[in-house]
Design brief:
It contains 20 helices and 15 strands. By secondary structure, the chain is an alpha/beta fold. Helix 6 packs across helix 11, helix 13 packs across helix 14 and helix 15 runs parallel beside helix 18. It binds 5'-O-[(L-methionyl)-sulphamoyl]adenosine (MSP).
Length: 526
């Protein structure tokens, strides 16, 4: 298994404020990378903003700002949101930064010198919001953009092209020999059927009709078309082509580093087809995985600011705490499938997992340890009962499966498994009946019961810490442990919480009143 891990979110367009759909992708990446870090992988996590292009130039003009002022403000808001969501990115790249723009120019020159790029004329159906040209077949008789389904218009322009067919055999060979390159597999098939089999056209990589972009050194009338500019962020942020490329050497060039791009379905084409081709042209290796997640809608409708149905994560974080929002996003939706955000689902998920399951379990266990053992966690006696051994087996099995699922980027499934372990611990209380053991004076039975519960709670929490960043340390502290004492090498240990002194705090996740909260969440959709 590769021990280094590089994960990226797409870089977001700072054309409007971030919404829950953007937060979804970033949260998933954060949960994955935190779980890897916890397990001892050396990781690097990148996010950022994609700041050039016609759309941004137009949006800035509408509000009488320069494009730079405009992107500065929105980019800051993205940074604020990631801070509020406790996103643990190592870097935040902005495509207007010099460390990016100068290297993109070099990349263009290198590909040009290779003969991968030529100057020609482009005439075709153009979608302004997507900044993409489409073929006759793709726009169909209705003349709609196949990506966003908005009307397209005819446009002609002198432009540089990237020769896609030059590297197509390499891409196809890589896809065949790396079945995990694209997940879910349906996305790979979609690429084959929609774009590759009908015949790939060369990719337009420069524009002359607007100037908010990186000028091409060889011909400054042209700016580099936004996708070549955008995709290369994944290597410019690591210092590729600069005087210090140590991060690039460590996390990209080294075959021992796993490279994972997480992207939404709407931009999978660029990551699956063109990005590997650019890399091939530069003589660089392909990413290990492109993970394509589904899109979230709101109550069944596409989220869109103009329709007034966008949910900002800020009011949710303020009212329910960051862990509730992170948990909902990471746990609710099966990764890869489209998802529906509804106020009901949010409230139900938070109550079911956080209030009723983990919150309740922690609270009951602490109360009993205080009552029966004066607040000191007992250790398992010599004679663990079958009941305890079964919980120990379940813990070990859960950790094993959790690691496999996380490695396979199945975040929701991995978290569900860990939460299920805590659900089983709640059932274990009912079956063990500690109150009867106490009444009967069965001290050994009571010690085993409390030791089992304390260890399952702490070890289960270690699995959930990647999502519950604020509550996990609070749970450790209530059992008298510091974060440093809860390292992953102890996660299968069934006796390490013994002798610690507990102190119960306020409940971690108060139960939400369904109707009130549904009304609140519905009221913040704008
Ligand atoms: N700038 C490009 C990406 C360049 S990456 C080299 C872009 N930006 S975006 O802001 O429009 O979208 C960024 C990501 O957010 C995409 O992966 C997109 O799928 C995701 N999402 C935008 N709305 C979303 C939902 N409603 N649900 C889930 N993800 C969503 O495309």
């Amino acid at each position: 298994m590769k021990k280094k891990f590089y994960i990226t979110t797409p870089i977001y367009y700072p054309s409007a404020d971030a919404h829950i759909g953007h937060a979804y992708c970033t949260t998933i990446c954060d949960v994955i990378v935190r779980s890897k870090r916890k397990r001892g992988f050396e990781t690097y996590f990148l996010t950022g903003t994609d700041e050039h292009g016609e759309k941004i130039q137009k949006n800035a003009a509408k509000v009488n700002k320069t494009p730079q002022q405009f992107v500065d403000e929105i980019s800051d808001k993205f940074k604020e949101l990631w801070k509020a969501m406790r996103i643990s990115n190592d870097d935040f790249i902005r495509t207007t930064e010099e460390r990016h723009t100068t290297v993109v120019q070099k990349i263009f020159s290198k590909l040009y010198e290779n003969g991968d790029i030529y100057l020609g004329d482009y005439e075709g159906w153009y979608c302004t919001p997507c900044e993409s040209f489409w073929t006759e077949t793709q726009v169909g008789l209705e003349r709609l953009c196949p990506d966003c389904h908005r009307p397209v218009h005819v446009a002609k322009e002198e432009t540089y092209f990237f020769k896609t067919n030059k590297y197509l055999p390499d891409l196809l060979e890589y896809m065949d020999s790396h079945p995990n390159f694209v997940t879910p597999i349906s996305r790979k098939n979609e690429m084959m059927n929609t774009f590759i089999k009908p015949g790939l056209t060369d990719l337009c990589i420069s524009r002359t009709s607007f100037d908010w972009g990186i000028p091409i050194k060889e011909n400054p009338r042209h700016v580099i078309y936004v996708w070549m500019d955008a995709l290369t962020n994944y290597i410019t942020a690591l210092g590729y082509g600069s005087s210090d490329d140590s991060l690039f050497q460590k996390f990209w060039a080294d075959e021992n580093s796993e490279i994972v791009h997480v992207v939404g379905a709407d931009i999978s084409r660029f990551h699956i087809i063109y990005w590997p081709m650019f890399l091939k042209g530069l003589g660089l290796r392909f990413p290990d995985r492109v993970f394509v997640h589904g899109l979230l809608d709101l109550n069944g409708e596409k989220m869109s600011k103009s329709r007034g149905n966008v949910v900002s994560p800020f009011p949710l974080i303020e009212r329910y705490g960051v862990d509730a929002v992170r948990w909902f996003l990471a746990r609710e939706f099966s990764f890869g499938a489209d998802g529906r955000f509804t106020p009901e689902l949010f409230v139900e998920r938070v109550n079911l997992d956080l209030a009723n399951n983990i919150g309740n379990l922690v609270n009951r266990t602490l109360t009993m340890i205080e009552k029966y053992f004066d607040g000191t966690v007992p250790s398992h006696g010599k004679n663990m009962r079958d009941l305890d051994k079964n919980m120990q087996d379940l813990l070990v099995k859960t950790v094993d499966e959790y690691e496999l699922l996380m490695d396979d980027l199945k975040v929701s499934e991995a978290l569900a498994l860990a939460m299920n372990l805590l659900g089983e611990a709640n059932k274990f209380i009912e079956v063990s009946e500690p109150w009867t053991l106490f009444k009967n004076g069965d001290i050994e039975g009571l010690e085993n019961t409390m030791a089992t519960l304390a260890n399952v709670i702490i070890n289960g929490t270690m699995l959930l810490e990647c999502a519950l960043v604020e509550s996990a340390p609070k749970i450790y502290a209530q059992f008298g442990l510091t974060n440093d004492e809860c390292t992953f090498d102890k996660v299968r240990d069934f006796n390490h919480v013994a002798h610690h002194h507990v102190h119960k705090d306020a409940p971690l996740f108060p139960r939400l009143k369904k109707e009130d909260e549904i009304n609140f969440i519905a009221s913040i959709a704008k």
